[in-house]
Structure formats: structure tokens, C-alpha cells
Amino acid sequence: MLDATTEIATLTIEDMRAAHDRIRPHIRRTPVLRSDYLDTLTGARLLFKCENFQEAGAFKVRGACNAVFGLDDETARRGVATHSSGNHALSLSYAAGRRGIPCHVVMPRTAPEAKKDAVRRYGGRITECEPSTSSREATFARVQEETGAEFVHPYNDPRVICGQATCSAELLEQAAEMGATLDAVVAPIGGGGMISGTCLTLSALAPGVAIYAAEPEQADDAFRSFKAGHIIADDAPETVADGLKVPLKENTWHFVSRFVTDIQTASEAEIVEAMKITWKHLRIVMEPSCAVPLACILKNPETYRGRTVGVVITGGNVDLDRLPWTL
Amino acid sequence: MLDATTEIATLTIEDMRAAHDRIRPHIRRTPVLRSDYLDTLTGARLLFKCENFQEAGAFKVRGACNAVFGLDDETARRGVATHSSGNHALSLSYAAGRRGIPCHVVMPRTAPEAKKDAVRRYGGRITECEPSTSSREATFARVQEETGAEFVHPYNDPRVICGQATCSAELLEQAAEMGATLDAVVAPIGGGGMISGTCLTLSALAPGVAIYAAEPEQADDAFRSFKAGHIIADDAPETVADGLKVPLKENTWHFVSRFVTDIQTASEAEIVEAMKITWKHLRIVMEPSCAVPLACILKNPETYRGRTVGVVITGGNVDLDRLPWTL
Fold first, then answer.
1. Residue B1: is its pLDDT beyond 80?
2. CATH 3.40.50.1100 residue ranges for chain A
3. Which residues lie below 8 Å from residue B71, measured CB to CB, with a gap of 6+?
4. A285:B286 CB<8 A
5. DSSP labels for B284-304?
6. CATH 3.40.50.1100 placement within chain B
7. Which value does ipTM take for this structure?
8. Angle between the A60-69 and A87-99 helix axes, to the nearest 10 degrees?
9. Is B326 in the A-facing interface, judged by CB distances under 8 Å?
């Protein structure tokens, strides 16, 4: 059984398969949508894997469920814990709720009330910290000591990466059901959990499929890491694609450095434009982060023209009162 | 072969099946989505049939494709025509484009440019009229005389009703695939095309399934017709659910009066609230009209609690710069 300290290089496609069997009762096989209009616009055949339709609104339920349902009963009883104010906190709360165990979430007291409410709706127990790294670390250490809860990192955890890897396994199957063969997959990159899972699956099951990571220009630490050959972490990047601000870590760097074909970037305006185009023509509610791949496809037509391209729509938790094109 | 003058009482489930075979290459078998959150909120098990994911953004492509692809070659060559500034005009343009024949659309010159652009994007040829019934009728008569195009009414045409009927046939199949058995279906009612198709299919294939029509309080002519036992047509109702302003006609009244279980209504505020809830928790872009069913479900919990309910999401063509909760 995997745990948080499993050596990343030992993960195999069998770990992905075991994860898929473990989480299948708790996740959705989300639909793949397409649009003649977007195909004409890009000159490619785009297959959008809509992880925004997961119950908790993001692919992160896959990794969270794999971590939670892989725990032995004694460990599980003490619960799980994480520090995140985003989709991982929601997803871990959702997964823990499905297993009936506690989920402790350390969040800055300044996080939006809507995000706190969403975590609580899924049963997560919030401990507030000050909005600084030192306060977060100290608070988290205290929560962990008091509860004995198992830490589940949002993306650097091998169990999480194996869970995210199930997404592209489904995408391969669904493309085949649609009579298509993927030439490439594009996914957004923040900490690299989704991209790492994509690498784990495709390198084994479809090694000919190119893997592109899409990143905001204003948070391009993965792009610069990829070019430099080592991890570069920014301090506090600012981008509308707020799910993508976090840096790579050693376990995701393992996959990014070995299996990613290229990393492309897009400007803030290009991201917002691609987001609005997708809402209008695919008619889905998705986060700005999910628009970075289409922005990169529109910006680099020579990479994608004439090819069948899987695009991962990573999440759909947005503030409907503050859409970026209305601000 | 059906035509615009086919006696409505002669339609059978075989006409629906023939329509489905005819249009299958041109439409999508749209996914059925669900949400634990919405199920908990309503106490029902809701299956949302997402016709907003049709290429032209609405179920109306089903009826339009059935009409267009059922024409003999000589008639088809002269094209089709309609007067509509909404989803039927888009859908008929889309269908005609797939067959490579002209589609003439008479629209008020005051219609929003975005709607005119969308019709043109699908190849529709617009003739503008003044925004009055007399101008529309005179202009339409002239276009038809000049072109010889076949008139396809947005909902009173038997070919259109048979096309719309394919939607609930798919919903029945998809519910079964999900291990569910429908107790009821709720769809919005305007002119009654979708509801009539639903009646045609369910009365034959699943007569035990209750059929509810959902209507805005401020455009409740179908509700009042249903109670009175004859068609009552309002002059110019005003509602945020702008797809639902049109009155019943004799062919849709045939089905509504015979097969509908009940018609329920919701206020403007209830519609907008249900729309926002669906965008947030189902994470789809849909029109205000599609929110009327959920608004009625929330308002009449005793009708739906504990039941498995199909909800037709009819379309997703909205102005993203003018969402009703931001106005």
C-alpha cells in the first residue's frame, strides 16, 4: 500500500489501476464534451474532459479519495488534515465525509467566507491561522499533534498523484468510445499534480501522446523550472488563474522533468478571453485555471492544428458574482 | 412521411423512432448530470438532461433536424424558413447548414446584434422586419413567396414535435443506464414543443411517468389554459425566462390537454435563484428558462420528495455580460 513517503520513482500503472478501483464508487466518470465551433476556431479536434462536474467541483476528489480510502482503519479513525483554501480542501473534506472520518483544514482567517462555507458544507473542520507561512505551519503542526490526523499534501503526495492519474485513463477510454485517438493532452499546471498523474498514465498506456502543460505567464515558475532543469519557486505570483499559483515539488518535478513535452504560457487577457469563449460555446461553468490550456492552444496553433487534443477542465468552483470579464 | 399539415392525433411512437434514426448523425446524445447537493436540497433524485450541450445550444436542433432531413430533395433545394429570434432560428440554420440548403430567418431589426450574429454564424440568411406582428407576417409572406422555402414553425409543426420527442427517449435510456427509474419528468413550457414531444414519448414508452410543465408566473398562459380547458394566449408577457413567452397552439394543446399531469409556476425571483443555484452546483451555463423546473421543484417539495425526477435543461444561449443576478 502506498503512503505519503512512497518513493515516487517506484509508482507504476498498476498503482493507478488500484487507485481507480478504490475511488470509482466515490467519483464520477465525468463526460467529455466537444464543440464544432471551438474545433473550427482552433483547427484541432478538442475533447474536453469535464472534471468541473465532479461533486466537489474538481479533479482533486480523485487524489483525495485515493488517499482517504487507502488508509488502514486505525489511521483513518484519526482523520486527515491539510492546509489549503482551495479545491483540495473541499475535495479532502468530501472524501473524508464519504468515509465518515474527520478532515481538519488549516485556512487563513482572511480566506473568503464562501470558501470556508464550502469546506464546512462538506464536513471539513476549519482551524484558522494568520495569513503567513509561519503561522500556517505552526497552526498546522499543532492541529496534527492534537489530532494525530494524516497529512495529505495537495499534490506532492504519491497517493494523490495516483488518484489524479485516473483522469487521463478515463479520457483515453472515452476518446476511443468517440472513435478518436488522442495525439496530445493539455492540462493546466500549478503544483503539477494533474500533470504528474497524466504523465504516469500516458507514459505507460499511450506513450505516443504528447503532454503539454499550460501555465499563466504571471505565474510561470513551472515554465522556468522546465527550461532551467531544476525547480524554481516564486514567492507570491498574482494571476486570475488562482489555482495555479503554487510551485512544483520534488514528486511532481519527477514527472514534469521526465515526461512533459513542453510548457506553454498565456497572458491574463488571453486566459480571460479563452474562459469566456469556453463558457459561451461549451456552455460550462469553469474556473479561470481551466482556460489556460485553450488560451495556449489559440496562441500556438502550429502545435495543435490537425491534431486530436484532450483538454482537462480541472474545476468549476467560481464566484458567480465576480466573473473576470465583468470586473 | 410527415409534413407540416399531418393530423397531430395520428402521430405514434414509430414517428419518434423514425425521427431519432433520421437526426442521430446530426445531434448529440447529451449527458445526464446530477448533484448530491441538489438532491439533498430538494429531497428528490434529480437527473438533468443537458440539452444546452447541443452544438447550437438547445434541444430545438432535434425538431429542426427532423424537419430539414425529412424533406424530399426538390423541396429541400428551395430551403426552409421561419420567424424567430431565438433558439429555433439558430437550430434551423444549423440543420439547414448540415444539409447544405438555405435557411431564411425573418427577425425584427431591433433584435440584439448578438442573436443576429449567431444565426449568421450558422449560415442563416436574415431578412429584417419591423418589430410588429403585421410587419413580421407581411415580410415572412414575401420571403416565402420569393424563395418557395418550406415554413418550419418553432413548435406547432408535427415534424418538430417528433424531433423534440427524441429527448425523453434518450433520458429514459440514460436513467436506466444509471440504475434509475423515472417517476416524473419536468420541462419548461412556452409554446409547448418540448412538453408535447415528452408526452408523445412517455405516454407510449413509460405511461406511469408523471409529466409536469413548469412556467413563469408572469407568462402563465399555459397554466391558465390547462385550468380553463382551452387555449388562452397572452399578448406580450414579460419574464426573465424569455424563451417561454409564446402561447400554446392547437398541436401542442393536443398533447398538453391530454397527457400533462400538472402545470406549476414560479416567480421571477424564484427563477433567478434556481438559475444561480444550478450554475453553482451543476456547473453548467444555461438559460433562465431552464431554471423554471428547479424553481417549481423547490416550491412544491411535496410533489417531488423521494421521487426520481428527470429535468430537461433546454438551452444554454445566454448573454454572459448580462447575467440576471448581476443586473
1. no
2. 8-59+157-326, 61-151
3. B80, B150
4. no
5. B---GGGHHHHHHHHH-HHHH
6. 8-58+157-326, 61-151
7. 0.95
8. 40
9. yes
Q: CATH class for domain A8-59+157-326?
A: alpha beta
Q: What CA–CA distance (Å, rounded) separates A162 from A90?
A: 19
Q: Which of A283, A275, A145 is nearest to A216 (CA)?
A: A275
Closest residue of A to B52, CA-based?
Answer: A283
**For residue A173, what pLDDT is reported?**
98
By DSSP bridging, strand A210-216 and strand A184-188 are parallel
Angstrom distance (rounded) from CA A281 to CA A75: 46
Per-residue pLDDT, averaged over A115-125, amounts to: 92
Q: What does the alpha-carbon distance between residue B63 and residue B95 come to, in Å, rounded to a whole number?
A: 9
∠ CA B208-B209-B211, rounded to 5°: 130
Report the candidate in B35, B324, B52 with the shortest Cα–Cα distance to residue A33.
B52
Beta bridge partners of B262: B212
pLDDT band at B133 (very low <50, low <70, confident <90, very high): confident
Nearest CA in chain A to B36: A55
Tell me the pLDDT tens digit for each residue of A219-271. Answer: 999 999 999 999 998 777 899 998 899 999 999 999 999 999 999 999 999 99
In what order do the strands lie in the sheet containing A184-188?
A: A32-33, A45-50, A308-313, A184-188, A210-216, A262-266
Dig out the grid coordinates for A35 from the structure: 464543440
Cell of A230: 531544476
**Which strands, in side-by-side order, build the sheet including A103-108?**
A125-129, A103-108, A80-83, A150-151
Whether residue A316 and residue B283 make contact (CB cut-off 8 A), yes or no, is: yes
Nearest alpha-carbon partner for B296 in B198, B170, B165, B184: B184
| pLDDT exceeds cutoff 80 at A277 | yes
Return the CATH number of B8-58+157-326, one of 3.30.1180.10, 3.40.50.1100, 3.10.20.10, 3.30.950.10.
3.40.50.1100
Instruction: Look at the domain B61-151 and name its fold.
Output: Rossmann fold (3.40.50)
Predicted pLDDT of residue B209: 98
Is B117's Cβ below 8 Å from some Cβ in A? Answer: no
Identify which of A128, A131, A206 has the alpha carbon closest to the alpha carbon of residue A165.
A206
| Closest Cβ opposite residue B55 in set A35, A57, A279 | A35
**pLDDT tens, position by position, B249-289:** 999 999 999 999 999 999 999 999 999 999 999 999 999 99
Distance CA B108, CA B139 (A): 10
Rounded-to-integer distance, Cα A291 and Cα A293, Å: 6
Residues facing residue B263 across a β-bridge: B213
